[in-house]
Amino acid sequence: MDDSVLPPKLLSALSKAADLVRGHQYIQLFSHYDTDGITAAAIAAKALYRAGKEFRVTIMQTLDDANMAVIAGTKAECILITDLGASFIKQLDSLPCDVIVLDHHTLGDLPERLCYANPHLYGIDGMSSGCGATMAFLFAITLDERNWDLAPVAMAGVAGDRQHLHGVSGLNTFLLNGAVKRKHVVTMPGSLIPVGNLSSELFMSADPYIRGVSGSPAGTEKFLAEADIPAGKDYRDLTDDERERLSSLIAVKLTTQGTSRAKMEEAARARYYLPAWNTDAETLASQLNACGRLGLAGIGVAAGMGDPRCLDRARELDAQSKKDTMEGVLAVDSDRLNQLDHIQWFDSSASGFTGMVAGVVMNYIGDPQKPTVGINTSDPIAKVSSRGTDAQLAAGIDLADALKRSCAAVGGLGGGHRIASGGSFPSPRREEFLAKLNGIVGEQLAAHQKN
């Protein structure tokens, strides 16, 4: 793909979407509750606001039969769906109103009538090269070129969906190059050292998670002393020698705890500074994600639209979320990671921070050969999140397929990306689910070995 040019069929779909929106005064917007969904909703909502449209935003944890009924029951003549919809195209296609779906998840049915834009339709991997926020952003600039200033929010969506870990590609490259050219985004060199006050940032560091340092005030103080760096010093104030010493010590710590070289290189990835927001894409992504995960997605959408009071609240929620996540990670690190033949899992019912903890556990604590699964059974319907690695994908593991099949086998729903997927099922059937998932992953590995 030429990163400077969008696929013609995508341009056609985006133009159709823009024309449909221009033809209606009121738009009902639905989106997902994670970072990608919130940023996508914020971008679309800001674009609608600037276009003089009336709109309402509804955020959903998942698109299932019950929420599909909510969408079907709306009285709006135009429905816009971001970061959701790929698995319900047939049902959405049957609605009597104009429907626009801007999604990036694995393709299912194809529409006959509705307007559908998805990277997979154009031979682009929606897992790595175009997220929901990217699609919403492309729609926004098609609607009005002045919406290029929403690129920072889209980059936060890319970061939230972890599509920047190995450098941007595909549609995300178009977004980043255009944003850098217009000075909306500045690329910063990567480092293992967290940005900000070193005492607080190392203490709360989950990526990388440094065993004995992260989550430990005493461990953080000892670690900085070992590097001969005064406690409380800021990353920006480090000398070249201090930066080299600290980075080397972090690398030694991570190597000792079994972190792969590939993961360390990933942790030292480039960052994207957002001048107008005075922060970087990953930090903004974390703040908006906290809103969604804590049931305050509306604050996240408003923060993504630039509301200063909601941004302040998002920062507060993020600080609490990071504290809770760290507690969840420390709990799993205290021998609470259960091993099956082909998967590893932990119970997140106490913390509720399933997906974020699963990601940290997968990369810095667990067996790198097995996908990590977190399950929250605190409600009658269990929530499950799974995380894998590129090496696991190369070995034949497909978590989107595995979660879809294993959840369905116990009366639930699942799906997502090959490397990160989730779902739900009746909580009493947890052991059945685990056995089914373990078997499916084993089958995937065996099938790959035969090929």
Describe the structure in brief.
With 451 residues, this protein is α/β, with parallel strands linked by helices. It has helices at residues 8-22, 35-50, 65-72, 89-93, 132-143, 151-160, 171-181, 198-203, 217-226, 240-256, 261-267, 281-293, 297-304, 308-333, 354-364, 390-394, 399-409, 430-450, and strands at 26-32, 54-60, 78-82, 98-102, 115-117, 186-188, 271-274, 279-280, 338-339, 344-347, 372-376, 381-387, 413-416, 420-426. The chain is globular, with a radius of gyration of 22 Å.
Structural features:
451 residues; alpha/beta; inorganic pyrophosphatase (n-terminal core); Diaminopimelate Epimerase, Chain A, domain 1; 3 domains; 6-stranded mixed beta sheet; 5-stranded parallel beta sheet; 18 helices; 47% helix; 14% strand
Characterization of this structure:
This protein has 451 residues and is α/β, with parallel strands linked by helices. It folds into three domains: 8-162 and 169-182, Alpha-Beta Complex (inorganic pyrophosphatase (n-terminal core)); 198-267, no CATH class; 335-450, Diaminopimelate Epimerase, Chain A, domain 1, CATH 3.10.310. Helices cover 47% and strands 14% of the residues. The protein is built from 18 helices and 14 strands. It has helices at residues 8-22, 35-50, 65-72, 89-93, 132-143, 151-160, 171-181, 198-203, 217-226, 240-256, 261-267, 281-293, 297-304, 308-333, 354-364, 390-394, 399-409, 430-450, and strands at residues 26-32, 54-60, 78-82, 98-102, 115-117, 186-188, 271-274, 279-280, 338-339, 344-347, 372-376, 381-387, 413-416, 420-426. The strands form three sheets. Strands 9-10-11-12-14-13 form a six-stranded mixed β-sheet. Strands 2-1-3-4-5 form a five-stranded parallel β-sheet. Strands 6-7-8 form a three-stranded antiparallel β-sheet. Strand 10 (344-347), helix 15 and strand 11 (372-376) form a beta-alpha-beta unit. Helix 2 (35-50) packs parallel to helix 5 (132-143) and helix 13 (297-304) crosses helix 14. The longest helix has 26 residues, at 308-333. The protein is globular, with a radius of gyration of 22 Å. It starts with 7 loop residues before the first helix and ends with a helix.
